[in-house]
Design brief:
DNA-binding; 2 domains; elongated; mainly alpha; about 65% helix; Arc Repressor Mutant, subunit A; about 210 residues
Chain lengths: ~210, ~210, ~210, ~210
DNA sequence: CATGAATGAGAGTTCATTCAT
DNA sequence: CATGAATGAACTCTCATTCAT
């Protein structure tokens, strides 16, 4: 009677749907840890369940099977960032936008769990074509399209001196990929200053243009 | 003409040592296929054996276990290229050397089995720190050191206008990595012209400098 | 009649804990059969599972591995008898006590599954030092200690004429061991009347003493 | 030219047959070590071969298979002692003969490789009925028959006071078995003075009789 | 909804045995 | 005779998946 959102005597401050969503989130979070640490094939659902604080069977109430869990994990992690990818300003000087774009990736991707997710996609991509395609369609192609327009504008305005860059937005992103891979493999014993790397990268990209 | 075992005529019997080396090579080749296709954990030694045309137990005559097979495979594939990495000319104009360096990678790595091996190292690196370290020590760090000297020379001679590049040889290689990853994931449905990518990349790198 | 789970009527469902304990017992019983028949190394868990009526994997829900199954089997079989070993009367005439002791062993050990267990311990002891030590500590040394006190009393009271026996309680048990080994190896084609053997043994032990 | 027994340039001082016999002996010796250490099932012919200094296949030139090797090993080790078993004097006082008999076993069996062989027979007996039967027929029954006659003589002459012993020669041997088993299992952490045990045993056996 | 005991196909690994050299 | 590379059946152990409770 006190809690209108909890009919039937549920004391917990959450409704059934919320509890369910929370469980789902717990499982996804646990799965991320395990998949990131072991890879898809070597990760054990037993460990995912233990880490999520649920029984092994419960996972199957929320996900069809191991592969579905993996794919939904990747999707769930990527989706919130898909919008951000296209939120770049369409007007004004180009360099600050590219800078913001790269800074965004460095801060919100490379230094977060998202880096693990993308490394997973890269590592397992060949075994999960659907995932690779999803990643390309929803993230990569969109980001590259945005970049492409940006670069065209930069070339048109003279900010970017070298027209070679148009049609190869991958060149803008390549150092990010380098930072991502390096971080997963060599960071431990050969640290790489990604921020400085990005500054140098920007300097080169905009070197021969004139300031906007 | 006196020696019936003389090289030059491929004959069946061969020596014991040759047979043995051939078997080993067969197994490694089969392992490459399977590991590249399935990843380390999901690859089955049964399939490796079948593909190599040997019995399952035979693998264990040549390799301690699955992990050893994997590590030796990577090492065996990388080692022959280690020397090549440092064979860049130490004198003269810089751009042609960098061009040759990238062309070499594109031709001898990206379009060969070596690409699979490096993708494997990237994918499994976190689970095989020894391998990641080997790859860094024997390949990555050497190549970067060579590039570093090259870039310094280019900056000193004015060929490279932008000194930002020095100390970040990773920027030179980043597009190669991009091509490698792209090739493994998106090439099927979104082909990338790596050669053109490289030309654009070079144009940008040497854009603001004066010709040597 | 009110409690459907009440003991006294063997019914199927039972509680989870009971089911679990029963499964464990089934597996141990099956393991005893197989280990006794084949020895540790040659026994196959597949057969244990089949005999226990469970799947192969189920064994691993209850026991860490084959060796743990073996060791727990031996412990589980021996433990219930450890108390019995020290339950011999500490007063009165000695001969009846020794007689009872040997009769107990002949009836409760030699003619039961326990004989198989001890034969297993003897056969596998060298490969399972922990088991040999357990058996010595919990069974052998205790039984010998009890016997030792008993013999000392018998010598003190004159019931046992020969003081040589003190400090060698093994001599009292040796014929039991003989019966155990004989039973496992020769009984089939050269039967040995263990009861008569024991009577003769007792006659000799107490031959030169005077009745208590 | 110096060695007339080595025609054809063979430097080794042995003929073909001798070499062969030596090889056989080497294999048997190696097999004894391995079987004693690991038991029949767990012993590896690979280790036997390595220890014997021959190739794995060579074993099969001398023995049909693993089981034959094992059985011939046991037979070969026991046969030389079969004669000794019946070489006990048929006349004169009994006690010295029994003493000699037990002393012989303690010295020539318990403290030698023979102990390992008999422990093996005991451990593997149930799996090798033919071996158990051979051991019974050629060793056990003969020794017991000899002992039986000896005991009868002792009882007849009054040396042995207790006629219960006749028909149970096993009682004479039981402490030896105890020593054998104890040696294999507990000797390490609970040493048993077998010689003293035997003296006590003899004292008891002959306690109530009058000296011859 | 949630559980976790149970399943059983399938993985890596071993080793007795064979046979071309 | 001797070798040891090769075999492949058989083993132990794992783990995604199911289902009675």
């Amino acid at each position: 009677m006190a809690n209108p959102a909890a009919p039937g005597g549920a004391r917990r401050p959450a409704g059934r749907a919320e509890r369910s969503a929370a469980r789902r989130a717990d499982i996804l979070a646990a799965a991320l840890e395990e998949f990131a640490a072991c890879g898809f094939a070597a990760a054990r659902l037993d460990d995912v369940a233990r880490r999520a604080g649920v029984a092994k069977g419960t996972i199957y109430l929320y996900f069809q099977d191991k592969q579905a869990l993996f794919e939904e994990l990747v999707r769930a992690m990527l989706v919130p960032h898909i919008a951000a990818v296209e939120a770049l300003p369409a007007e004004g000087p180009v360099r600050p936008v590219v800078e913001a774009f790269l800074a965004h990736i460095v801060h919100d991707v490379l230094s977060t769990r998202l880096a693990d997710v993308i490394r997973l996609v890269i590592a397992e991509g060949p075994r999960f074509p659907a995932l690779a395609e999803f990643y390309y369609r929803e993230v990569v192609s969109r980001a590259l399209a945005v970049l492409d327009r940006l670069l065209a504008r930069g070339v048109a305005s003279g900010e970017i001196g070298n027209p070679a860059l148009v049609h190869f937005p991958q060149l803008v992103v390549a150092p990010v990929l380098m930072g991502l891979i390096w971080g997963g493999m060599f960071q431990r014993f050969a640290p790489l200053d990604v921020a400085a790397l990005m500054r140098a990268h920007l300097d080169i990209l905009f070197a021969s243009g004139r300031a906007a």
